[in-house]
Structures are given as C-alpha cells and as structure tokens.
Design goal:
By secondary structure, the protein is mainly alpha-helical. Among the domains are: 32 residues, no CATH class; 147 residues, no CATH class. The chain is built from ten helices and two strands, in the order ββαααααααααα.
Length: 273
C-alpha cells in the first residue's frame, strides 16, 4: 500500500498514484532521471499522435461524430475542438503554399468580382502614393497577403456557429454546441483545401491565376463541403434529410461567399493599414 503524502499541486492528501482532487501524479525523485524524462517525452508524443490521427480519421469517416461525442461527454479519445483546429490550421499553412484565402494582387486587378469593387483604381492610387512601380508593390502586397491570410481564419468559427444556430435553432442546442460543430466543420474545410491544392491547383498550375481555376475550385468546394455539412448535420442535430439537403445548399453557397468577402477584407486591410 502506498504511503500518504501531500499532493505537490493542490496540497491534498495523496494515497494513490494520482490525486483524486486535481489529477496530479504522485511525485518522486526518480521522475527527474534522464531515462524517465525520455520515456515521458516519447509517451507524450505517441499519445498526441494517436489522438491527432484518431481525430482526423473520425472527422473524415464519420462527419459530425466528433462534435456529437464531445457534447455527450465522450472526450478522452480525441483532441479538444479548439486544440485540434489550431493544429490543423498550423499544418495547413506550413504545408500549403497557395490557398483559397490568399490570392495575388494580379487577381484583384484583372478578374471579377474583385474589379467590380474598383480595385484597379485603388491599387493605382496606392502605387502612386508610395512612388513605386507595379512589380515592386505587387511583391510587397503578395508577401503581406501570404502572412496575414493565416491570422484570421478563426473568425470563420463564430461565423459558421451563428449560421448553424440560425439553421438549427429549433433543435434547442446550446450556443457552445453550435460552436463545437462549427469548429470541426472549419477544421474539415482546411483539410479539404489542403487536398484541393494537390488535386486541382497543381494539375492546373499553368492557368492557376485565371478565373477558370477559381471557378472550378469554387464549384467543387460548394458540392463537397455542402455534402459534408449535410451528413454532419444529420448525425449531430438529428435533422430531417430534406432539411439537411437544404442546409447543404445554403452552406455550399456561403463557403464561397465567405471566402470572397474574406479576400476583400484582406485586400482593404493591406491597402489601407
């Protein structure tokens, strides 16, 4: 039988290997050995990897199941929603060179719908004010776009959370439950855009700055993300199949619309701030 000691973390009496009050492990000097340090580090990495891969597998194989398990209290097998989103977000922007959230200045001054917002004159005025040529400013703009497009992806979580609440308000879910569902959906969109880069953008590299690729990507995004949302909402909200199809169409359009708005917000931010 283990002797009674004081928990180093909360000060409670500790008679087992773990504190019943705070969960802290019983401490002894052997835990400071190099061997224990290596074992603990390796165990932590393996445990993290297992959770990450299991979470990704469930995200793809069973849309909506991660959110359902989380709100019903089955949490130990998976990464927490925000923790998972941050990891996916980091991997996405480390591994993906081009992404739908970040486009070059060339697109803003040559293609619709951007040119409908007077982007050509805005860019011309900015270049004149700085006293540089187009090539120089284009380089500066594109570098900022690559960097800043990564910083605000999290805003899509409350945005989709509100949309989910509006679409499924009669299902009496708490706002946090909608946010959990939205977090997993946004994480899936990042995974999807990662795959899209290698299935569409690279094969069509020779026309990647044209409206054709953007249109193709937009259509594929609408169909696949809408389809995923329909299946996920059926599982999570227990929504009727007809309503799931309707919401899929709504979300498919919203995805492309939100990305276009996000691009324009970034454009104005880079130009004026």
């Amino acid at each position: 039988m283990l002797s009674s000691v004081t928990c180093k973390n909360c000060g409670s009496k500790l008679q087992e290997n773990y504190c019943a009050k705070c969960g802290e492990k019983r401490f002894d000097k052997n835990q400071l050995s190099f061997k224990h340090f290596v074992e603990e580090t390796f165990e932590g990495l393996v445990h993290f990897d297992n959770k990450l891969f299991r979470t990704i597998k469930t995200l793809f194989a069973k849309p909506g199941q991660l959110s359902l398990d989380y709100v019903e209290g089955r949490r130990t097998m998976y990464m927490k929603p925000i923790q998972f989103f941050l990891v996916i977000n980091l991997l996405f922007f480390v591994l993906v060179r081009s992404n739908p959230y970040s486009i070059d200045l060339y697109n803003y001054v040559h293609y619709t719908p951007f040119t409908n917002f007077n982007t050509v004159k805005i860019v011309q005025d900015k270049i004149a004010a700085l006293g540089v040529d187009y090539v120089t400013y284009s380089y500066l703009f594109n570098e900022r776009m690559k960097s800043e497009s990564k910083e605000f992806i999290f805003v899509f979580i409350p945005l989709y959370g509100i949309i989910s609440w509006l679409l499924f308000v009669r299902y009496k879910r708490l706002i946090v439950e909608h946010l959990v569902f939205a977090t997993h959906f946004v994480a899936f969109t990042l995974c999807f855009f990662f795959l899209q880069t290698y299935l569409i953008t690279i094969p069509f590299y020779f026309i990647q700055n044209s409206e054709n690729v953007d249109m193709i990507s937009g259509i594929i995004s609408c169909v696949i993300l809408g389809w995923y949302f329909a299946i996920a909402s059926r599982r999570f909200y227990k929504a009727h199949i007809i309503w799931s199809i309707v919401t899929a169409l709504i979300i498919g359009v919203c995805v492309v619309g939100f990305i276009q708005v996000y691009r324009m917000v970034l454009f104005y931010k880079i130009i004026y701030l």
